[in-house]
């Protein structure tokens, strides 16, 4: 079940020590990671992600864990009782004069390959730790749109996905760049994360969402902002 909780710009992250992992669990994580990597056209990077431990109002406390541990927990749900990883990421809703910006996820990504989602999005790895700064970094990497082109960014919700054991800090962005300018910037990135962009006018959103595989979180965010 996906739920949205109100959240504001005063959100902050606090780091606490990560719990230790015993040798048996560590070995199982490495084995499951190797299995998930096998046969992939593009290998996954075993970086760090923020695992949410508790929320106290606008303060989100958690620790950094290996991405391989999160992948292993997804592959073997019984590990949730041992690892208790609840990934915290950032997700944007980018508005431009021509509409709402969507990206089609590449076929090699682990979650929702070839689905359409609101852009940008990404995990929190501590570089930087600030959610809004992290989202602007993801925006530049994934679409080529620089942070300097963003005229407004505002935190509005914390999405909680019970099934995926994951959370997303949701941030609304605005830019004055046109659809053609955004498309040209995206084409220059090599289109690794998103194979294509679609800029959809508000009036066309119901048809777009009905005829394209749009991820659940994006549908929820559009509904929250009164766009769907």
Give structural notes:
It is a single chain. The chain has helices spanning 23-37, 67-75, 80-83, 131-143, 179-187, 205-211, 216-224, and strands spanning 2-6, 12-15, 48-56, 59-66, 87-96, 99-105, 116-118, 121-123, 150-161, 166-175, 194-200. It is an alpha+beta fold and 228 residues long. The protein folds into 2 domains: 10-85, no CATH class; 89-224, Nucleoside Triphosphate Pyrophosphohydrolase (Alpha-Beta Complex). Strands 1, 2, 3, 4, 5, 6, 7, 8, 9, 10 and 11 form an 11-stranded mixed sheet that branches. The radius of gyration is 18 Å and the shape is globular. The mean pLDDT is 95.
CATH fold-level name of the largest domain: Nucleoside Triphosphate Pyrophosphohydrolase
Which structural class fits the helix and strand makeup?
Answer: alpha+beta
Strand content: 25-35%
DSSP helix fraction: 25-40%
Mean pLDDT across residues: 95
Using the 3D structure, state the CATH architecture of the largest domain: Alpha-Beta Complex
Write the layout of secondary structure elements.
Elements: E1 2-6, E2 12-15, H1 23-37, E3 48-56, E4 59-66, H2 67-75, H3 80-83, E5 87-96, E6 99-105, E7 116-118, E8 121-123, H4 131-143, E9 150-161, E10 166-175, H5 179-187, E11 194-200, H6 205-211, H7 216-224
Helix pairs in contact: 1-2
Provide a compact summary of the structure:
It contains seven helices and eleven strands.
Spell out the key features of this protein.
eleven-stranded mixed β-sheet, 2 domains, 34% strand, alpha+beta, 228 residues, Nucleoside Triphosphate Pyrophosphohydrolase, single chain
């Amino acid at each position: 079940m996906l739920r949205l909780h109100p959240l504001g710009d005063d959100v902050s992250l606090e780091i606490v020590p990560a719990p230790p992992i015993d040798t048996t669990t560590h070995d199982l994580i490495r084995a499951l990671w190797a299995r998930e990597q096998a046969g992939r056209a593009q290998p996954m990077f075993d970086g760090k992600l923020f695992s949410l431990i508790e929320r106290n109002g606008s303060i989100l406390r958690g620790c950094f864990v290996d991405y391989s541990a999160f992948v292993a927990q997804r592959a073997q749900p019984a590990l949730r009782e041992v690892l208790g990883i609840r990934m915290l990421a950032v997700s944007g809703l980018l508005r431009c004069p021509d509409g709402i910006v969507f990206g089609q996820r590449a076929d090699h990504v682990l979650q929702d390959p070839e689905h359409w989602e609101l852009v940008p999005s990404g995990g929190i790895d501590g570089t930087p730790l600030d959610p809004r700064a992290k989202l602007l970094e993801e925006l530049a990497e994934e679409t080529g749109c620089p942070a300097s082109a963003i005229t407004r960014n505002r935190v509005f919700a914390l999405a909680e996905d019970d099934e995926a054991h994951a959370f997303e800090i949701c941030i609304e962005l605005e830019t004055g760049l046109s659809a053609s300018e955004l498309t040209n910037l995206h084409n220059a990135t090599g289109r690794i994360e998103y194979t294509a962009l679609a800029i959809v006018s508000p009036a066309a959103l119901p048809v777009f969402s009905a005829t394209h595989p749009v991820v659940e979180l994006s549908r929820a965010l559009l509904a929250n902002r009164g766009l769907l």
